[in-house]
Amino acid sequence: MSADVEDTHKRDFLVLAGNTFAAIGGASLLWPFVQQMNPDASALALASIEVDLTPVKPGQAITVMWRGKPVFIRNRNADEIKQAQAVDVKALVDTSARNDALPDATPALDEDRVKKGKENWLVLVGVCTHLGCIPKGQSIADSRGDFGGWFCPCHGSHYDTSGRIRKGPAPRNLEVPVYSFVSDTKIKIG
Amino acid sequence: MSGHSTYEPKSNVSKWFDERLPVVRLMHDSFVAFPTPRNLNYLWTFGGILVFCLVAQLVTGIILAMHYVPNDQMAFNSVQHIKRDVNYGWLIQPMHAVGASMFFLAVYIHIFRGLYYGSYKAPREVLWILGVFILLAMMATGFLGYTLPWGQMSFWGATVITNLFSSLDGVIPGLGTAIVTWLWGGFSVGNATLNRFFSLHYLLPFVIFGLVILHVWALHVAGQNNPTGLEIKQPADAVPMYPYAVTKDVFGMFVFLIPFAYFVFFMPDWLGHADNYTPADPLVTPPHIVPEWYFLPFYAILRAIPSKLGGVIAMVSAIVILVFVPWLDTSRVRSCKYRPIFKWCFWAFAFTCLALGYLGAMPAEEPYITWARIFTFLYFAFFLLAMPIVGILETPSKLPRSIMESVLGKPGSTGGHMPAGASAAPEKR
Questions:
Q1: What confidence category does residue B3 fall into, taking pLDDT thresholds of 50, 70 and 90?
Q2: What is the pLDDT of residues B22-75, one digit of tens each?
Q3: B2 pLDDT above the threshold of 60
Q4: Catalytic residue list contains A130
Q5: Predicted ipTM of the assembly
Q6: Which residue in A has a C-alpha nearest to residue B180's C-alpha?
Q7: Alpha-carbon radius of gyration of chain A
Q8: Which of B4, B49, B94, B282 is the most exposed place for a label (fewest CB within 10 A)?
Q9: pLDDT (mean) for B323-348
């Protein structure tokens, strides 16, 4: 039998096809092993909660658990609202409203971080955008930082009365979760 | 490594076995007849001490896993159960927890010894880089293990460290968050996170074990460095590992075990943080989060940089830069003993690391932040300025001609065939 050139090319194709097949097969097999680490069905099932706001008086704040994270709900007084509205958005560290219900490009105006007509209610995911600590400022005795909102003691981030980052290493404003008023005094988060 | 094997099977059985699997021969050549430089000081006993630490952590860890429950509702109590109810749990749990600290203490001494005596230089670059990989794997293992008791520091340490990946949002929006959610298996650190951390904490020590085998293998190819930084050039420069080096290693290990045992028996919880004896609470961050002492210098570097992504990059670079040390140092002389200027750079670097460790334990406020920035600069200056520049400018002091001469003041008689002066600076390869 003579070893001719066509045979070699034929082998090249077989090697290429075989390797490609093995690579695609390997990657497909790998995917379930990667994906199994993402949140499972039971974690995703805890997607929404309802909160009654009646007991929260102006100036007070409550913390509720949503998806394993704390959510800050603050009933802001007139002063705090005025302070939050007076801020020049261009001077902020993060100029995006970070409101999950609005597009990313929305400017970080106070009115885009609350619901219209319910400006006193500020609802935020209470997780510092730096490295995930829970900022102080929910209870009366807490330090609220230099801007009257929240202060993260871990690495010294200061948030204002609209939950926007003003000073410290955190890169983003506190996130506003998707929520809606189901009645005048009740909200549904998620 | 050098020459032929000196192993001679004594019985017919060992001869039969040696012809089929020469593992006894390998052990004999690697750990009995292996030539070790005759001038090794006690800093060279830390290799053996580290092997002991790894084995001790494996043995105690496998036992703890028989009693520990990796569940967010039960983990904290199961550790208390081990310490109070399990037979000898009061002994085995602190052996593991204190053992982690002692392991890091030993590895840091081992690394500083390598830096001082130039053990990273040719032909030991791969040996050194494997060591950096072992350090990285140890850090990952130490971090994962600290999460398992599920106290406040466990929980918030895990939260802060996994959140380091969210800084990748600054590169591609959403990438960091996706990675963090994937690591957690949820939207916050929780039961799924604890379970996988336990699994990985059990896995990684075996990865370290494999890396250690490669590390020792590379060591036995290049041969050991020594306080003079000279190679073994004649038989009189070396002594067989057994009994000389082994005896010294065993003595060093027993001295090391004195503080180890003191902590285990008299201050078992002293190296832990008081907050970690409070069960994890996802709604309350402790006012002052600090990692274990062995991560403090890196934590100080993380906090010194006023940008989230920048801080993470600086912290990772602080470790990864060690990989490049063999090429950053331009000097032809290995040992700091003969490097009058670099010697002081080394001690300044050692002080910098201690200072960063202190600053990492302090709150994130002035004046600590400014000092942390100054020392972060000095940390990187050691690698990026001192190593390349001093190596070029410095005139090394006169080296002995051989290891033998450095010990006895005269060149070895058995090596008379060596031309005088042939043993100056180690050549670059």
A1: low
A2: 999 999 999 999 999 999 999 999 999 999 999 999 999 999 999 999 999 999
A3: no
A4: no
A5: 0.75
A6: A38
A7: 26
A8: B4
A9: 96
Please provide the size of chain B in residues. Answer: 429
Upstream peptide bond of B227 is cis (omega within 30 degrees of 0): no
* 3-state class (DSSP) for residue B304: helix
Question: Residue B23: helix, strand or coil by DSSP?
Answer: helix
| Chain B neighbors of A130, CB-CB under 8 A | 163, 308
List the structure tokens of A146. 């230099």
Residue in chain B lying closest to A45 (CA): B186
Residue B37 and residue B237 in contact, taking contact as beta carbons nearer than 8 Å: yes
**Cβ–Cβ < 8 Å for B156, B285:** yes
Length of chain A: 190
The amino acid that residue A99 corresponds to is N
> Please, which residues have CB within 8 angstroms of residue A124's CB and are 6 or more apart in sequence?
A71, A72, A74, A163, A174, A175, A176, A177
Residues 6+ apart with CB under 8 A from B417: none
The β-bridge partners of A148 are: A160
What residue ranges define each of the domains in chain B, with the CATH number in brackets? 28-269+281-302 (1.20.810.10)
Query: Are the CB atoms for B121 and B129 separated by under 8 Å?
Result: no
- Residues 6 or more apart from B5 whose CB is under 8 A from it? B25, B28, B29
Maximum Cα–Cα distance for chain A, whole Å? 96
Distance from C-alpha of A69 to C-alpha of A67, rounded to nearest angstrom:
5
Rounded distance between C-alpha atoms, residue A71 and residue B163, angstroms: 18
Q: How confident is the model at residue A3 (pLDDT cuts 50, 70, 90)?
A: low
